[in-house]
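In practice, a research group might receive sequence data for several interacting partners and want a quick structural hypothesis before committing to experiments. The following worked case mirrors that situation: the sequences arrive first, and a predicted assembly follows.
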Amino acid sequence: MTVVFEKTKGLTDASMHYCPGCTHGIIHRMVAEALVELNILHKAIGIAPVGCAVFAYNYLNCDMIQSAHGRAPAVATGLKRARPECIVFSYQGDGDLAAIGTAETIHAAARGENITIIFVNNAIYGMTGGQMAPTTLTGQVTQTTPYGRDNAYSGYPMRMSEMLSTIDGAAYIERVSVDSVKNIRHAKQAIMKAFQTQIDGKGFSLIEVISACPTNWGLEPVKALDWLREHMLPVYPLGVFKDSTSREVMP
Amino acid sequence: MSASSCRILLSGFGGQGILFAGKFIATLGLALEREVSWLPSYGPEMRGGTANCSVILDTKRIGSPIVTTPDILVCMNLPSLDKFEPDIERNGLLFYDSSLVNRKPRREDIGAHGIPATQIANNRQMPTLANVIVLGKLLRETNLCDETTAATVMMTIVPERKKTLLEANLAALTIGFHYEDTA
Amino acid sequence: MANKVLMKGNEAIAEGAILAGCRHYFGYPITPQTEIAAYMAKKLPKIQGTFLQAESEVAAINMVIGAAAAGKRAMTSSSSPGFSLKSEGLSYLAGCDLPAVVVNVQRGGPGLGGIQPSQADYYHATKSTGHGDFHMLVLAPNSVQEMLDCAFDAFDLADKYRLTVAILSDGTLGQMMEPVDTATKESGHAIEKPWALTGTQGKRLPNLVNSLYLMPEELEATVIERYKRYALLSEKEVRCEEYFTKDADIVVVAYGITSRVAQNAIDIARKEGIKAGLLRPITLWPFPVKQLMDLAQKASVFIAAELSMGQMAGDVELAIRCQKPVLRCNRTGGMIITPEELLQKIREATTLHEQTE
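A structural hypothesis for the assembly, expressed as tokens:
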């Protein structure tokens, strides 16, 4: 019998705890597949964030550490400097990366740390039950913006990929989405490219994944994907924001 | 001051080489196989304000490294003399730069030595070495060491690659050693 | 003393760490400890090490977490306000059972406080380092030589018990120079770290460094296991020094720079015929409880002398179970107790002692 699909060795056998329609599962699988296909799973060290994806350490089949909220890029820095031969990546949500950990994110990029960050942007705090994130859209209703996010009162959504693309140390920055098969296929290629950037020693790489949170958005899974396309993609356009991977390797 | 214990306070403006003079005495103490401590004042005042430095040489284990009642006081400016003169131990010694301090010491129970160090240093084209001239005088008056030992110590703290600087420092030491008090 | 060199306390800490095999230092500038970072910045790149100036104290301690999780000897240093920021990371280090070394060259607080020497982070170091049930092993050197020795020993202790070892110093000890003998040190002992993150290399199951346990039974079990290690080290690793305590009626308890002042005060007191002695805790946690209890059998008055409003004094009272009065001798905010102030307190204690006889 021909095998047409197989669960990647990059994932453990643990069953995931994510809500129905949550896209973390897809993103985990893409990361795991990339590690296997690039033959780096055996030297990978992953960092799980604080947030829904904290249990990534149960699902990804490589050495893992769980870090404090927002501190993953600093922990990654310590790991990578101590073990430059390993592949070090963090998996972080929008609250983790773009609110409480903004400084760590920006400075890891500024140093050109040779690490990879998978940044999952679903415009909301999932784990704590749906509060406003730095990436929450204007007008979006959350538990802490019950009348909709009012820019004059609680600020504007942050475009991290665009911001980070201005930093010299950033080597590869791309925003992708997992709302369709086509976009998922492309997202996987982007994640592969980010890890390849690290393998080649070219510096900081980050893939922002526009993701759905049906539970906290209060939408059915399919409708959540529609909402993502209709409301998130106009604010967070997909594309490559920085690619200096053709430049010489930093000494 | 006793043969076994010597507590020195050096003071002046930041940039006058107060800490360096202190380091010299500490290094000398090490060469003499004494217990040694060197403690600078630190913080923003080091960049142009007042600076002082406590140095203790002892044959026994040193307790507090802070010198509040010095056996020997070095003052490279008037505010330092005003501040610390009352604290000198009876029969202690005072060395001050008389070209920058425009008054005589008030204490009569101490041995005071005014050296116009800044003026001499300027005349000899070594304007930054007034501290070392005073240091030379201090070493002679206290008999802490002879000129040869002093030169050896200087060679250990001024790196050989800074040959010109070393030579100037040695010259300044010699001037201090041979400076005779005027009445 | 031919092989001794003059070193600043801060430099001695850095050198001690390097001698112990520390090759990863992460820090953020703050007075009065910046010489540690400067020394590391100069030395580490030349010996295949990493010195990194972090964007914040918070980032620095998390970089230490990363390097420690990778199985390497790593450290950071700071001064009081910086330690407030490191609290989170110190709690995670404990929760993850990672070995690390941290140095606090204390200055006056609270708030931005001042930059002059202080011992007002005693509570922070020994009791309230961060959230949750945990301790650091806290070493309190009182000389430049001991700064080097403590930094050297800290890494072995951290690896052995899988905890953070803190060196609680102060601005005076950090800034002063004294002769140091480095010749007696050999490179630190390597300890197997099968838990370290190295990549599986395809040879073992993945390792996990983690402090999250949602099942309370599980979390409680990890804490209890940790406290068993604490009990063991409380039995084996307590360090203190005694000075004229054998016949002492009055025992001064002081650590760090204050113990140096106490030595002067006690020398004068002895000349006056007062039987005063000094107990100097070198480990502040674990505290030398047994040694103090032994002294309490004979001495009649204790004096807790410290550069805080009396943070250690309570530990002295607990150690001797309040069997004898514990007088306080305190300066704070960057002020240092003078030998005369402490001597005055010793004389006061003498009066109390005579009343008890």
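Before designing any experiment, note the following. Residues 216-236 of chain C form the longest helix (21 residues). The domain at 241-356 of chain C is CATH 3.40.50.920 (Rossmann fold).
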